[in-house]
Amino acid sequence: MRFPEGFTWGVSTSSYQIEGAVKEGGRGTSIWDTFTQQGGRATGDEACDHYHRYAEDVGLMADLGIDAYRFSVSWPRIQPEGKGPASSVNQEGVAFYDRLVDALLERGIDPVLTLFHWDLPQALEDQGGWLNRDTAHRFAEYADLVGAALGDRVKLWITLNEPFIHMTLGYATGEHAPGHALLFGALPAAHHQLLGHGLAVQALRARTTSPITIANNYSPAWPQGGTDADLAAAATYHALHNRMFTDPLLGRGYPKLAYEAIDLRDGDLDVIASPIDFLGVNYYNPTGVQAPLPGAPLPFDLVALDGYPTTDFGWPVVPDGLRDLLVGLLTDYGDALPPIYITESGCAYEGVEDPQRVAYLDGHIAAVNAAMTAGVDVRGYFVWSLLDNFEWAEGYTKRFGLVHVDFDTQVRTPKTSFAWYRDLIRASR
Ligand code: IFM
Predict the structure, then answer these.
(1) Whole-number Å distance between alpha carbons of 5 and 329
(2) CA 56 to the chain's CA centroid
(3) pLDDT at position 1
(4) 119 lines ligand 1 (CB under 6 A)
(5) Average pLDDT value for residue range 150-164
(6) Which of 107, 188, 265, 373 has the highest CB neighbour count under 10 A?
(7) DSSP alpha helices (H): ranges in 81-175?
(8) Where are the chain's structural domains?
(9) Is 344 annotated as catalytic?
(10) Is residue 39 predicted with pLDDT exceeding 90?
């Protein structure tokens, strides 16, 4: 496999999943702190203790030889109450990310910063969270503050991580914080996140000359069954999961199903379509879709894809799905499609010896390469994740890291896949 010179190899993490230290450094409460205190759930209170061990973790990244590290900023570390003027910014929080960014640059690793990876300040949730349009404006203010602090050193900005997943699990089914189970009543949380994205792009442009993007989760909707009703169900799911978060970004407005559910105001679509430099693609697997049974609450039924190996999460391993997704994006959006970064790709498996992860990554990197050969402009690939970490509703039971973490001792042990990825990066230079 050949990749062009300058192709970026990286790894991704997020704040609540690795930082711990939730009560330190002046950090405010996030919705994940509140959510995990209920019902005996595992918490991110300590997670990988990265807040204290970031220097060791940057050392691991340097050993891995990556070009770029994607991390997220914890909004409540910067604005404990989710709002307020520059004078109310928590300087201890800013100082942590300052240290991290400088440590990365010293090791020749480009900092790639995500502004929002689901840990909303609880104070904003108390005002309705992303169901409240005002949160979009608060997000833009927060983007401006982080831009002012780090705009001179961050090499790539990502506004939101996976707004579809945050809307769905956080507001439609209630499996994630903030725990609302509103089904289609969750759609305003999509619109307000996308509006916040557009406003944040505009705010960041005034603070940085670095490129800006968003990291979307994509899942090809594969009809299981050949009836017209199965095809229609798959098209509806595709509109919800994929098009809803891409069409408006690229200037096409929302797919039909959104309009009845959201309060779209004059100018919103222009804000959402504020030009982005890249599109971030997080891919894990396609989704099997069938027509729903009569009387079912949703217009589609999600079903397992038979005939594929599965990860410890039960997710099917389908590398070709990534190639088809990338080629499909080019077919659907043509010249409107910006160059792509694969901002997440990875799998959950147990063990320090992890040949399945090596096979998974090998297959997915080959799929990216095949899509590039077919004409898709992909600029980089980020493995999810550097470390085993707090996997949301699954707690610590699903391990996505290239590095094993013993959560009792915080000892880090590079896995077989770490050495494999390091060698791949070296060989590609
Ligand atoms: O751990 C998550 C990450 O936070 C967002 N994308 C998917 C990963 C694996 O579930």
Answers:
(1) 24
(2) 24
(3) 85
(4) no
(5) 99
(6) 188
(7) 91-106, 122-125, 134-150, 163-167
(8) 8-427
(9) yes
(10) no
